[in-house]
Amino acid sequence: MTMTHTLTPTADLGTDIEDVARLLTPDGERIADPELDRWIADVDTAALRSLYRDMVLLRRIDVEGVALQRQGQLGLWPPCQGQEATQIGTARALRADDFAFPSYRETGVVYARGGKPSDFVLAWRGEEHSTYDPYELNTATQQIIIGAQALHAVGYAMGVQRDGTDQVSVAYFGDGASSQGDVNEAMVFASSFGAPVVFVCTNNQWAISEPVALQAKAPIAGRAPGFGIPSMRVDGNDVLACFAAMRWALDHARSGKGPAFIEAVTYRMGPHTTSDDPTRYRDKDEVEKWRRRDPIARVEALLRARGEFDDAFVASVEADADTLAASVREAAMTAQTRAPLTVFDNVYAEPHSGIDEQREWFGAYLDGFAPTELSTGAQGV
Q1: How far apart are CA 111 and CA 89, in angstroms?
Q2: Interatomic CA distance for residues 235 and 37, integer angstroms
């Protein structure tokens, strides 16, 4: 498949998403697409409800993560509100033995791959062994080094080739990472070796405070064919389009045709992380425009139009979301933080004088924070 649904180089890449593959309009109307329809022929009402539930639960995890950070329980949180369709749609298309390589914002990929409540929050507390076992979820730990996971995914895919299996690896990264050398080098290797890997670029319009149009004068999906990799540009707020596009890409890679590339055009509704203030660089009218393209609302509209969005279903989803949110909060609030000096315990298998010196220095540093008689509130001073 050649690249489709591309914009011209003069298009406003930050606001114009009309020339993308789509199956659901922002109003929830189901429309036809000759390239995507066949990939979701088996998606019935039950499957559509399941995708809706997943997106609602992911949004609740995200809301809880932000709240926990604001309350001092997490050091940082990277919100993913608005990107639920991209994450859930692509991740739900994966086979259990495929291997995902997510970035730090792909909370929904971890959720869809079977992550537990503690898996979403403990890493952001900096706890020991706070991440999940990658081989339990077939998902690498979330990468915070921009774009590095693209190389890891290609390396894994090349290993799959040598093992003779039909697994596929998936690299998730943002529009900002597409300018990193790691991503471009990964595509060179993937194309040269025909590696079974899918690149999913989440174009959420902002690389921290820089708009996508600053680094991409044409659609990002247009870069992949230059490496010999077929690509597709889809509406990242349309969970059906993301699901269908991912099935196409996985089939392409799994059948021995080499890598594939998806650009999912979506929007980061919140800050880059909880340390960011997006009001300093984004116009509120832009945010409101994208709010009307909400990925959850459009699936709700479709289900309502089909008479499949009843009170019982809503209550069930809300109950599941409440239960999951409570579990995420409990996982953070009950985490046991080890004593600071234990960070030196397992650096080396044998005694090491350098570590002993560092432990002694750090211990003295910590002692400097010990309360004194004066600081504990001596009266009458």
Answers
A1: 12
A2: 14
Q: Is residue 264 within a helix (H) or strand (E), and if so which, with residue range?
A: strand 260-265
Task: Give me the catalytic one of 268, 293, 298, 329.
Answer: 268
Q: Mind listing the pLDDT tens digit for each residue in 361-375?
A: 999 999 998 886 665
Q: Which amino acid is at 245?
A: A
Active site residue 268: yes
Q: Which of 281, 306, 338, 352 is catalytic?
A: 281
How far apart are alpha carbons 329 and 118 in whole angstroms? 9
Q: Is the pTM of this model over 0.70?
A: yes
Task: List % helix, strand, coil for the chain (3-state, nearest 5).
Answer: 50, 10, 40
Question: Does an H or E element contain 132, and which?
Answer: none
Q: How far apart are CA 45 and CA 38, in angstroms?
A: 16
239-264 per-position pLDDT tens digit: 999 999 999 999 999 999 999 999 99
Considering the candidates 272, 293, 298, 329, report the single residue annotated as catalytic.
Answer: 272
- Alpha carbons within 13 A on the beta-carbon side of 97: 5
